[in-house]
Design a protein that fits this description.
mainly beta, four-stranded antiparallel β-sheet, single chain, seven-stranded mixed β-sheet, globular
C-alpha cells in the first residue's frame, strides 16, 4: 500500500522556522519527482516547491523563493521542506505529493502549520 505521511507541523511564532518531512512507503521513492503543496484556511491549493527524482533539480514558487528549501533523502525515503521567516500567511495544511508526468497523483494527509505569537 502506498503511503505518504507528513510530519513536523505545529505552532510557530512569526519569524520562526520549521522543517516538514514526508515519509514515503509502498513505491520506489527515487523513481519519482516530489512536490510540496499547501492549502490555507478558506483558500485553494498552492504549489510551493518540487524536486527531481535524484534531488539534482529543485523548483520553487516565486512567492516562496529564498524562504524555503526542499530536499530529499532517497536512502530514507523521505522528503523535506525547510521554511524560514514564517509569516501569518504561511499558516496552512502542507501536503507532499508524488509527481507523474507533470501531475500530482498521490498525496499525503497533510500536516498543519499555525503561525501565531
Amino acid at each position: 500500500e502506498m503511503q505518504l505521511v507528513e510530519s513536523g507541523g505545529g505552532l510557530v511564532q512569526p519569524g520562526g522556522s520549521l522543517r516538514l518531512s514526508c515519509a514515503v512507503s509502498g513505491f520506489t521513492f527515487d523513481d519519482y519527482g516530489m512536490n510540496w503543496v499547501r492549502q490555507a484556511p478558506g483558500k485553494g491549493l498552492e504549489w510551493i516547491s518540487g524536486i527531481s527524482w535524484n534531488g539534482g533539480t529543485t523548483y520553487y514558487a516565486e512567492s516562496m523563493k529564498g524562504r524555503v528549501t526542499i530536499s530529499r533523502d532517497n536512502a530514507k525515503n523521505t522528503l523535506n521542506l525547510q521554511i524560514y521567516s514564517l509569516k501569518s500567511g504561511d499558516a496552512a495544511v502542507y501536503y507532499c505529493a508524488r509527481e507523474v508526468e507533470n501531475a500530482l497523483d498521490a498525496w499525503g494527509q497533510g500536516t498543519l502549520v499555525t503561525v501565531s505569537s
